[in-house]
């Protein structure tokens, strides 16, 4: 049921175009009457400038811990201010082990794959694998990086993939790994996948070697329903998948864990266009719709989604990156058009 009392959500506008797309998204949600109360929090470049080595101050972490839900703009990875990425710090602090990226054709967004009925979800493990960042020079001229894969990590990511499939009424889970070469690490996801998915008899289960999966995503993307992968494979293939349906400006994501969920666009801070008022807010808006569904406000999410789809289909007042005639309008004008289409 739609929530009647406001749900508190931590909002991190972030860097570059972040504040612009965050404001646009909040404006649309407010116009649709979403029952959300924003708690604004700092993360990213300004936090690094203030000497916070993780890029996320304690007040921000406290806010996310309290609310359990966050919407985040892109954060610049520091060059010369500390070592870490604030994104990785946030995901790790709250053990947000699942990265969920829907890949769905959008009306009016023309791509070489338009009309194929692409509609699948990439579930990427988010905290293990080579992203643990454990690497060193073994001897001069020989670098080594550790690939950490745990049974617990594999089990929870496959369970999440199955839960996503069941919640969305999907039929099949494809576990994509490089188990033929890395029999222990990648092989663990394959084995755990087989064991866990036995508990979900309503879901068809297949294993696919990940390089073939990349090939299949381009050749016949409509065959996929829910895919699950280790961190680096999922990172690469989810970006490939975003490219199939219109690219970074329209690609949303969710970072899910047991303690908190953080929703964000796939794109970065786009410094070249920051401050010009021309950024496309669609990816963050679609991420906010995932967030509304996460907090149970399905009706508002559906209403905004409909207005957005009508706007894209009409093809008037779109930002430059998706405008059909190449003549983009300012972010604010696109937002006004979406709001007008709320009906
Ligand atoms: P980017 O996604 O910022 O930009 C890539 C290209 O896409 C650029 O041409 C940009 O102008 C365009 N673009 C991206 N989002 C757009 C939007 N909403 N509307 C219109 N055009 C858009 O990638 P990058 O240049 O590699 O990274 C810039 C910074 O962002 C780096 O500091 C990087 O570390 C950071 N980054 C952060 C995240 C995150 O916070 N999750 C993700 C990726 C990159």
Automatic annotation (TrEMBL):
Keywords: Glyoxylate bypass, Magnesium, Manganese, Metal-binding, NADP, Oxidoreductase, Tricarboxylic acid cycle
Domain Isopropylmalate dehydrogenase-like: 8-338
EC number in record: 1.1.1.42
UniProt superkingdom: Bacteria
Catalytic activity: D-threo-isocitrate + NADP(+) = 2-oxoglutarate + CO2 + NADPH
Family: Belongs to the isocitrate and isopropylmalate dehydrogenases family.
Known function: Catalyzes the oxidative decarboxylation of isocitrate to 2-oxoglutarate and carbon dioxide with the concomitant reduction of NADP(+).
Protein name, as recorded: Isocitrate dehydrogenase [NADP]
Organism: Paracraurococcus lichenis
Organism phylogeny: Bacteria, Pseudomonadati, Pseudomonadota, Alphaproteobacteria, Acetobacterales
